[in-house]
Amino acid sequence: MKRKIILLITLLLLSYGYSNAQYGPVVSFTYDDGSDTWPALFNVFQEYGFPAVVYINALNWWVNGAGYNAVNTLLEMKAAGWEVSNHTYNHDLGVTETNVSQMKSWLDSHEFPNSGFASPNNDWSHSRVNIVKKYSSYYSRATELPGMSQPFDLYHIERINLTNRDNITTIRTMLDSAVANNKWIIFIAHEFGGTYRTPDDTWYQSDSLLRLVLNAVVERGIPVKSVREVINDFFPPDCVIECSKDSMQFPVLPYFEQPENQAEPPVFNTSVWNEYWHNTTWTDPHLIGSPVVYYNTSNDSLQVMKFHRYVLNGQYDVTATILLKNPGGTYRLYYSFDSTNTAQYNVVVNKNSDVSLGPVTVTNGQFALYTQNADVVSGGAGDVGWAFIKLFAKPLLVNIKVFLEGPYNGSGTMTTTLNTQGLIPKYQPFKKAPWNYLGTEARATFPANVVDWVLIELRSDSTTIVSKRAGLLLSDGSVVDVDGSGPVKFKGISNGNYYVVVRHRNHLAIMTSSAIALSSSSPLYDFTIAQSQAYGTDPLVALPGGGFGMIAGDGNNSTIITASDVTPIITNLNNFAYLDADVNMSAIVTAADVTKIISNLNKSTNVP
Predict the structure, then answer these.
(1) N or C: less crowded end of the chain, CB within 10 Å?
(2) What pLDDT, on the 0 to 100 scale, is given for residue 267?
(3) CA 310 to CA 209: how far, in whole Å?
(4) Does position 53 have pLDDT exceeding 70, yes or no?
């Protein structure tokens, strides 16, 4: 007898629908095959602090060739946040079971796990998808479309060439469209070099072109992520139901396919569920990478469909990718997380989209969604399809308050001069030593009350680091997530007791005096109320008018304030810029910054 599924449902909203959180814009840079020009390419990305993706063949002349030291270069790329993924073992043999699986084994054996897939020769078909999905988390190909809109198609990820034939004016327009419409652009090239504006060069990407594009991305504050990172953001590992997968549906349905030479999907049998695999981009955004499970709004007596999978116990927000075979209509879908009432909740859909289905708490390792019918809200009867159901674990929240001595103005707030002067970088500044944090947090613009970036670190004990995230420090001492929506979010971290470390570019780091309870509803932890809130002896500085703050003056990031912290001030005297030497964060390096250092001379961090 199967265990009864116990799901405790907590409604946070009166109704559900399209997710309020908009993902994007985002850009990824990808390179195929393997080339001895890639080390130089890597150096350019290191200058900008961005990751990229390489799809390699094990038998590629550079990867497999003697004297190139390619694997070590790839490992160095991986350490810098790059994704190294599958492009088949032998490029010439195409997408076969052996060729894909051998490359997967090669990647795993060389410490490149969890690989995605890019098609050699741009090959793509349903049969190839069925091979690739056994070994890779996604399937990508070049389509020359200028960016993808949501919902993203897991097994038909689209890439566009960025090579020397391309014009930077066109690329800038494409990036502006991505910003305006929250699109994901994935650029593709093969080798690094050649000459920008060479007609018909669809292979090489020159240094000048790459820098023009990277500068355009930076100007717009667009996050740069690996393909796998974006996929994991949208399809959380081990928390996705692919609705057409036999092991995740009941009753189990056979699928039928749209013939490649047939322009439109056929008329479905309205008396049964239809599991159908499209081959054409029949609406926008489209989805052709997986079969979709459809029901027709004219039938209220279908067998109940159960979509299910095992997941870890915890609290989740549930979304579903819903497709409409008949664009132009509006439909109300009924569903439940409880088999006793399959119409307990409903959501209205009028386009292909990812929709929010509300929160759920899983208590016995099993999740299930039940659905049986949908109604017409406007338009005629139509077919409504379920493609994916995704469970997003509620993030652990770090809800803290902290002051920096440098910009503190004596009235319970800090100045925002770096912000008002437009000096705060759009990308988190902790990628360099000593922090070496590779996070992709970024913002195009900043709210008026932002003081600066800070780095938040979680530790399971006083020395063991569990996770890091960059956040934004506000003038009142609040630390918020980069999206500005509330406390800093840590995904994939279990509720529990953690030490919290706060780091800043030119202030001594602090840590909570003990491990504190963190969850998806963490209470405020206020560092500003007492010395005893932070770890160690006198870890904070008393501030004018009361309260405590992080100690200013560590301009060289050595964890101790000494005379050597004056050197960068002398070097940068009177410079107007975003500099660690600007200890009081006035946007200009002056003698006043030396005063801060002298007042805190020989103080050091208490963080182990």
Answers:
(1) N
(2) 83
(3) 47
(4) yes
Q: Is the pLDDT of residue 563 over 80?
A: yes
Q: How many CB atoms lie within 10 A of CB 36?
A: 16
pTM recorded for the entire structure: 0.91
Amino acid sitting at position 257: E
Q: At what angle do helices 38-48 and 70-79 cross, to 10 degrees?
A: 10
Measured distance CA(120)–CA(444) in Å, rounded: 35
d(C-alpha 325, C-alpha 382), whole Å: 7
Tens digit of pLDDT for each residue in 156-212?
999 999 999 999 999 999 999 999 999 999 999 999 999 999 998 899 999 999 999
Show the beta-strand stretches assigned E in 14-152.
Answer: 26-33, 53-56, 83-86, 140-142
CB 97 within 8 A of CB 104: no
Total number of residues shown for the chain: 608
Cβ contacts of 73 within 8 Å, gap of 6 or more: 38, 39, 42
Task: Write the pLDDT tens digit of every residue in 396-450.
Answer: 999 999 999 999 998 899 999 999 999 999 999 999 999 999 999 999 899 999 9
Domains of the chain by start residue, with CATH: 7-19+236-393 (2.60.120.260), 26-222 (3.20.20.370), 396-599 (no CATH)
**Burial of 238 from C-beta contacts in 10 A (0-12 / 13-18 / 19+):** exposed
For 337-376, b where at least 16 C-beta lie within 10 A, e where not — what string?
beeeebeebbbbbbbbbbbbbbbbebeeebbbbbbbbbbe
Q: How many CB atoms lie within 10 A of CB 608?
A: 12
Contact between residue 46 and residue 52 where contact means Cβ atoms under 8 Å apart? no
Q: Which residues are 396's β-sheet partners?
A: 490
